[in-house]
Design brief:
It contains 4 helices and 7 strands. β1 and β2 form a beta hairpin.
C-alpha cells in the first residue's frame, strides 16, 4: 500500500510540473503558477514520507528458527513464548488448478507479540521451508493452523 501511495504522490507532482510548464508557455499569471505549486509540494512530501516509511518497515527477507525466532533485516528476536500463532494460508485458486507439477509458494502469517502489541508477519515460503517451519512449531509447542 505505501508503494501505491508513493506512486500516486509522484504522479501528482508530475502533473503539477506539467501544468506549471504549460502555464509558463501560455504566459499564465503568477498566482496561477503558484497554484500549480501545491500538487508538486504535496506530491513530493507524500513520496518522501512513504519512502521513509518503507525504509523503516522493511519486509522480512530471512527467518532464523532456533530457540527463538529471529527476523532479518533488523535482527528482531522473538522468544518462543511471543510466537502466538502460525497460520498456513490456503490459496483458493489451487483448488481449481489442474496442473500440480511444481510446488507453488505457500502463504504463511505469523502472529507475534512485540512490545505489548500484536504484530503480523506475512511470508511466502516454498514447500521445503513450510515443512521446516511446521517441524519447528511442533518442537516448540507453537500453535499452527492450516486455513
Amino acid at each position: 500500500m505505501p508503494k501505491f501511495v508513493m506512486r500516486v504522490c509522484m504522479c501528482s507532482a508530475l502533473a503539477g510540473c506539467c501544468a506549471a510548464i504549460a502555464g509558463v508557455m501560455i504566459a499564465a499569471t503568477s498566482e496561477l503558477l503558484l497554484l500549480f505549486l501545491i500538487p508538486i509540494l504535496i506530491g513530493v512530501a507524500g513520496s518522501v514520507s512513504m519512502a521513509i516509511l518503507l525504509l523503516i518497515q522493511r519486509p522480512v527477507s530471512l527467518l532464523l528458527l532456533e530457540n527463538s525466532l529471529q527476523t532479518r533485516p533488523g535482527k528482531r528476536t522473538y522468544p518462543v513464548s511471543d510466537v502466538l500463532e502460525i497460520k498456513l494460508i490456503h490459496d483458493a485458486a489451487e483448488d481449481y488448478d489442474d496442473v500440480h507439477d511444481k510446488p507453488s509458494p505457500r502463504g504463511v502469517r505469523m502472529v507475534l507479540r512485540s512490545r505489548g502489541r500484536i504484530r503480523r508477519i506475512d511470508l511466502m515460503l516454498d514447500s521445503r521451508d513450510v515443512t521446516l517451519l511446521k517441524e519447528w512449531a511442533a518442537s516448540h509447542d507453537v500453535r499452527m493452523t492450516d486455513h
